[in-house]
Amino acid sequence: MDKVLIVDDDPMLLTILTESLKKYCNIFQVVTAKDGLAAIKTMQKQRFHLVITDLHMPMINGLVLLSYINKNYPQVPCIVMTAFGTPFLKKRLQRDISHYIEKPFEIEELVQAIISALDQEVLSGTLNGISLNGFLKMIEIEYKTCLCEVTESERAQGYLYFERGILYHAFFRHLRGMDAAIRMLQMDSVTIKFRKPPKKKIPRVIEMDLSTLISEASRIKEEMFDELNNVELEKKNRELKEDIQKQLQTEEIMKKAQEQAASIEDHIFDINDAFRPLL
């Protein structure tokens, strides 16, 4: 039986969802948590196949919970319950959040989202559904002030600082500002942690808005990919030419050897002809 964890700080909503989803108990079982902290404690005790979470919650909010799941349970798909409301924001999020549902919603809409997410989990084996871009866009939309630690590997770690949803600064190795942000936005598989913002005032050094910055990072990454492909193609072409030249050289050597053998054979025949009267 698949287990679904629903996380929201509205007790009335949790009660309504629990009662309404009981008729689907032959497909999945529902467990609820009142905030991100309660959800983490519950996930440490039980195995879940899907997590549905709100973003605005006390103790530990939805963004931090998603970060925790991304790191510790990357195989568990997530559905984000949002209240961003406008088609513009919905369009901005849907490219980077595979599963989300807009409040208020109908129960059947949620059921379809749950079944879809569970089916995809079975087919693919892993589906977290939230990319780095998706996390950052949710921070922007929620007007969060936070420091994000972004790790691709133990040796590739950087920080993104947001103030009221605006990306102010970024740090990655020796890079600072926009260069650091672009480098991190090009990462494919990351772990995200939320750190307490520093007490010291951090100046805004990144003037480009987040969407434009993401597009720029994608463009640069594509150019680098194309360049690498061109280098690889040139290498293969060079190796092919070398192979052809070696083959031609081998054929030329064999041809000369055959000519020499034929010449020696003719010479032997001439000697035999010369000595035949004496025999």
Write a short abstract of this structure.
The strands form 2 sheets. The protein has a 5-stranded parallel beta sheet with strand order 2-1-3-4-5, sandwiched between helices. A 5-stranded antiparallel beta sheet has the order 9-8-7-6-10. The N and C termini lie far apart (103 Å). With 279 residues, the protein is an alpha/beta fold.
Brief descriptors of the model:
279 residues, 3 domains, Rossmann fold, 51% helix, 10 strands, 8 helices, 5-stranded antiparallel sheet, alpha/beta, 20% strand, 5-stranded parallel sheet
Report on the structure:
By secondary structure, the chain is α/β, with parallel strands linked by helices. The protein folds into 3 domains: 2-130, 3-Layer(aba) Sandwich (Rossmann fold), CATH 3.40.50.2300; 143-207, no CATH class; 234-277. The chain has helices at 11-20, 36-45, 62-72, 87-94, 107-124, 132-141, 177-185, 210-275; strands at residues 2-7, 28-33, 50-54, 78-82, 100-102, 146-153, 156-163, 166-172, 175-176, 191-195. The strands form 2 sheets. It has a 5-stranded parallel beta sheet, sandwiched between helices. Strands 9-8-7-6-10 form a 5-stranded antiparallel beta sheet. Strand 1 (2-7), helix 1 and strand 2 form a beta-alpha-beta unit. The longest helix is centred in the C-terminal third of the chain and has 66 residues, at 210-275. The protein is elongated and about 120 Å long. The protein starts with a strand and ends with a helix. Mean pLDDT is 80; it is low at 121-128.
